[in-house]
């Protein structure tokens, strides 16, 4: 493991052309690279500590996502007070002050505790029953995979018509920060 700033970076090499089933973990192996306020709220959430503690398998967690997730924002709607905040602490970034952490982020961290395989992550992002299952799969990739690999993971999925448009816009904005330019005239997923 190599230290990168304050984060540890795990490096798992696989044979060229073969990915194997073990996923590398990029960044902090304990926090999943989550914002500290979100992580604190997840870990202290009764939902995470009680209900999700009971879930032991990947399939149980996927079923829970199907039945419980109806948005992928970090906070439950209406649970945060942002009045009077300005700058980066305002409501724009979504993490200025705590609220009730969302079911989606509790489940996202639960997936992280399962130490998923490549096959399981592929199962999430290709799942046909719910766009929220796919969204959490892509969020898992975003938080845990090496940045140079993100474009390969997302390629071919950005034009998912069932995925909430806000999530597609977030992906396009993120991909532009890692070097993939997307123009306003190209379809999501097409390089400008």
Automatic annotation (TrEMBL):
GO cellular component: spliceosomal complex
Subcellular location: Nucleus
Alphabetical keyword list: mRNA processing, mRNA splicing, Nucleus, Spliceosome
Superkingdom: Eukaryota
GO biological process terms, semicolon-separated: mRNA splicing, via spliceosome
Matching InterPro entries: PRP38
Pfam family, one: PRP38
The family this protein is said to belong to: Belongs to the PRP38 family.
Biological role stated in the UniProt entry: May be required for pre-mRNA splicing.
Record-given protein name: Pre-mRNA-splicing factor 38B
Annotated source species: Gadus morhua (Atlantic cod)
Gene assigned in the entry: prpf38b
């Amino acid at each position: 493991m190599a230290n990168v700033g304050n984060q540890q970076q795990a490096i798992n090499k696989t044979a060229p052309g073969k990915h194997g089933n073990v996923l590398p973990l990029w960044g902090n192996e304990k926090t999943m690279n989550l914002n500290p306020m979100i992580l604190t709220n997840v870990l202290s959430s009764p939902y995470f500590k009680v209900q999700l503690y009971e879930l032991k398998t990947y399939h149980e967690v996927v079923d829970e996502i199907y039945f419980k997730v109806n948005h992928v924002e970090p906070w439950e709607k209406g649970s945060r007070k942002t009045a009077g905040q300005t700058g980066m602490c305002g409501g724009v970034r979504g993490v200025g002050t705590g609220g009730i952490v969302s079911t989606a982020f509790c489940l996202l961290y639960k997936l992280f505790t399962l130490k998923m395989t490549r096959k399981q992550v592929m199962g999430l992002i290709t799942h046909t029953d719910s766009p929220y299952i796919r969204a959490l799969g892509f969020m898992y990739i975003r938080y845990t995979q090496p940045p140079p690999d993100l474009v390969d993971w997302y390629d071919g999925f950005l034009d998912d018509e069932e995925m909430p448009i806000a999530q597609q816009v977030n992906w396009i904005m993120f991909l532009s920060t890692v070097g993939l330019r997307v123009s306003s005239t190209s379809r999501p997923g097409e390089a400008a």
